[in-house]
Design brief:
OB fold (Dihydrolipoamide Acetyltransferase, E2P); alpha+beta; Rossmann fold; single chain; 361 residues; 5-stranded antiparallel sheet; 26% helix
């Protein structure tokens, strides 16, 4: 296991397309971090750079104190699992798992022991004597995962390993990865565009967009204290409500207004917004933090339900507040389309971004 350090990594394809833009980060030894972002944001390019499959245009990769930027993939001792299951189809599952151990010239007894333990861990023991090519997609991916985990790699790179797996099998494999993280503490980077996977599996989450690392933080901070409005909306189901507002100081408060949306925050808490010369900011609040009432309440803003989404375990209420549309998430609140409701935004859950999307408070 190794600490992975990326220093000022930039990669440009064909001299034109900047897939990764001056990215620096550290993955501590034994940690599992989730690399999250939309398709095409540079996640897979970054994984290929770490694995040695491509060289960065500029920047360096370190494993512990070793600079590995110019090393070939086989010299780096990196295990990788891809989006599409990769198995040796004509070999048995046993031989697939044993393959990297035989390459290291381990003894037969040690190989048998480790294959047995890995098969039991992944619950694929009944399939050990089957040809891997005859397995379904989920079992192929479990076999591929086992082949990566069984070797003593310096790090494991998992590039969207659950994307093409059916939902029930996806949960099983995710559970196995989480259990491996908790028990084995192997340095792992898990690439995904699925926020639920990132929040569930990652001890830290690195959020990318357009080749840029936007935030590298704990799951809690990425969700509750997003570095910018892109992350605020990208993470969450639904994402954070974002409302462009003007603001002004009124007595001991700063008042944010957009149509009939009016929110007051203590001046000492919100005074950082005064540096915004435009006089406008973006106010953000997550759907589950908005308070609802059918009766008039103090500081309540009146809205009309235009869409009610019953999602089983929770409900999502789409409210129109004059020209502003917001979404409210509540597990119990029943409402009909056309019904009027009052909403309030608890100040402890309000986030403020500048017009460039950067978080102010």
């Amino acid at each position: 296991m190794s600490k992975i350090t990326l220093k000022n990594i930039t990669h440009i394809y064909n001299g034109k397309v900047k897939a990764v833009d001056n990215l620096s980060m550290e993955v501590d030894n034994g940690k599992l971090i989730a690399l999250l972002g939309p398709s095409g944001c540079g996640k897979t390019t970054l994984m290929r750079i770490i694995a040695g499959l491509i060289r960065p245009t500029t920047g360096d990769v370190y494993f512990d104190e070793d600079r590995v930027t110019d090393m070939e993939p086989e010299q780096r001792n990196v295990a990788m699992v891809f989006q599409f299951p990769v198995v040796y189809a004509t070999m048995t599952v046993y031989d697939n798992l044993a393959f990297p151990l035989r390459a290291k010239k381990l003894g037969n007894e040690e190989i048998r022991r480790r294959v047995k333990n890995m098969a039991e861990f992944l619950e694929i023991t009944p399939y050990l004597n089957m040809k891997a090519g005859k397995l379904n997609a989920a079992l192929k991916q479990l076999t591929s995962l086992g082949r990566a985990l069984i070797r003593d790699a310096r790090c494991v790179l998992l590039d969207e390993p659950l994307t093409n797996i059916d939902p029930s099998s996806r949960l099983l494999i995710r559970e196995k990865i989480l259990k491996w993280r908790l028990e084995r503490k192997q340095t792992t980077i898990y690439v995904t565009h699925d926020q639920s996977e990132a929040l569930t599996l990652g001890e830290m989450i690195a959020v990318m967009n357009k080749g840029v690392l936007l935030q590298y933080d704990t799951p809690y901070n990425v969700y509750e204290k997003p570095a910018n409005s892109f992350i605020a909306y990208f993470i969450g189901n639904p994402g954070m409500n974002l409302i462009e507002c003007s603001f002004k100081k009124v007595g001991s408060k700063i008042v944010f207004e957009s149509g009939c949306v009016k929110v007051s925050l203590p001046y000492e808490f919100a005074k950082a917004v005064e540096k915004e010369a435009s006089g406008k900011v973006i106010l953000g609040i997550r759907p589950e933090h908005i308070k609802l009432s059918k009766q008039k309440i103090e500081d309540g803003m009146l809205g009309t339900c235009v869409l009610f989404e019953d999602m089983g375990v929770t409900k999502v209420i789409n409210l129109q507040l004059n020209s502003t549309r917001i979404r409210v998430k509540n597990p119990e609140f029943e409402v009909k389309v056309g019904e009027s409701l009052y909403v309030t935004f608890p100040e402890e859950h309000i986030r403020i971004f500048n017009l460039n999307g950067e978080m102010i408070l």
